[in-house]
Amino acid sequence: MTTAEATEKPPVRLPARETWRALYAHFRPHRWVVALGASLALVGTVTALAQPLAAKSLVDKLGQDESITGVLLLLTALVVLGTAIEAVGTYILERTAESVVLAARRSLIGRLLRLKLPEVERTQPGDLMSRVTSDTTLLRAVTTQSIVSAATGGLAFLATIVMMGLMDVVLLGVTLGVIVLIGGCVGLLMPKIAQATKRSQEAVGEISTVLERAFGAFRTVKASGAEERETEVVAKAAREAWRHGVRSAKWQSAAWSSVGLAVQVSFLAVLGIGGARVASGAISVSTLVAFLLFLFYLIDPVSKLVEAASQYQVGSAAIARIVEAERLETETLTPPQGVPGTGPASVVFKDVTFRYRDDLPYVHQGVSFEVPGAGMTAFVGPSGAGKTTVFGLIERFYEAGGGRILVDGKDIRDWPLADLRASIGYVEQDAPVLSGTLRENLVFAAPDASEEQIRDVLVRARLDALVDRLPDGLETVVGHRGSKLSGGERQRVAIARALLRRPRLLLLDEATSQLDAVNEMALRDVVAEVSREVTVLVVAHRLSTVTLADRIVVMDAGKVRAVGTHGELVASDPLYGELAATQFLATAR
Description:
Blueprint: H1 3-8, H2 16-27, H3 31-63, H4 69-112, H5 117-122, H6 125-167, H7 169-216, H8 218-223, H9 227-280, H10 285-297, H11 299-326, E1 347-354, E2 364-371, E3 375-380, H12 387-394, E4 402-407, E5 410-411, H13 417-422, E6 424-427, H14 438-442, H15 451-460, H16 464-469, H17 487-500, E7 505-509, H18 517-530, E8 535-539, H19 543-546, E9 551-556, E10 559-564, H20 566-572, H21 574-582
Parallel strand pairs: 3-8, 3-9, 6-7, 7-8
Antiparallel strand pairs: 1-2, 1-4, 4-5, 9-10
Helix pairs in contact: 2-6, 2-11, 3-4, 3-6, 3-10, 4-6, 6-7, 6-10, 6-11, 7-9, 7-11, 9-10, 9-11, 15-17, 20-21
């Protein structure tokens, strides 16, 4: 799938109820800790609400020429106590927020690594990575701070309104009138914030996608002189993220400015009308001062409510992308229960049909063959014949559309997936080597391998000389995708990794294509030796490899054309005879 095709995929839009359900799932394990943090924040709010009353008492005492020392001490204590309690509550909430992000990332990573291969092939890897990084980060605030802000802000708002109403209903009416008017305008901005944030996150995912593409073919980019062109592609995605980010910032700025405007207009209105009421004797000066202080304290709960609404809009955009990733189909994996059976495995294909997508032509059109057990079976044929697909179906990377595939006489769909794969060693076409040390790559499929087993497989794969000349031996870092190794060395590492697994069935997909003649001959001897005890299936294009096979399966246009030995097929099958004559057997799926 191209980058453009990935971006054209319509985004998931979740109903509000489903969004809340998803958010609560992340919040639920931490609800009691969040409740503690909220309680401490609420205590801090209560101490803040007591300060205007203390100020009223202070003004009254000044008017009556009484001592104000006690009131000043009380005010100081309220300020210090409220600040300390609120600081503790904030720390608890921030720590819990990080825990929410950690749990979300662990869950999402575990799920993404269990995705079925077709799902990964339909989705850009960079976009999947952005779900784990930037999208989960947005959960940080919405699952803790926004919930607490909504709860404490709402309670503080109601408490402040009640206190203001007890002081003067007229001034309260003026205040609420301004707040409701401007609050309605803020409400209209919230959907715009959500939309802009969602598009910004999608653009961030696009940046990851195009960078992953460039770094995945870094040498090709440089050899093609395409640095500037690729830079522009990334810059275009970055500009798109910037554009939507600025739009989100614009609407959030408008929302916050509206809060400030509401308070300032309320202050002016209360000051004017309140001054007139003081002059008429309806209220005292101390009441007006306390009311104005309550009005200023109203900024905090109103701000918290606006912040909670804004964070919810941002979080709902992130949760929609996370839910989209969680809906991708995964494999059901359980720890291996112990590989059933011993010795080489048998493989049978019975009228197998398969295509990669419903809108694509069939790759296999009734493929049938039988591999009874130990020995080497080679698959040959022109490009597109479906050779590599045979291996993908055996590994259950893909599910056959029709027919049956049997391993040891048992349908592979009836095998526990972990047990099936534990029986198989697989060397892919491009022989991927992971970033890390050489040892980590060798034991990747057999983490419990002993030092003796590792030394033995190094000799068999002709890697012992390489290890001896590396500066740190097995602990040498091989670089991103094995960039510090040659193509042939990467293939030998992949072969050694598969052999160390001690499989019953070994799948080699053009595993010696990048080796020189000397190493290829040596490894052919190793494979031939292994095939005495293990079932070996080989996709090969070199005649020297094919002639060693006990049986050869000739495939063409998604069907098995012929099965036999090299001598039999040269005499009986024109296609094989032509391939053998040119000493070249094409490679492809």
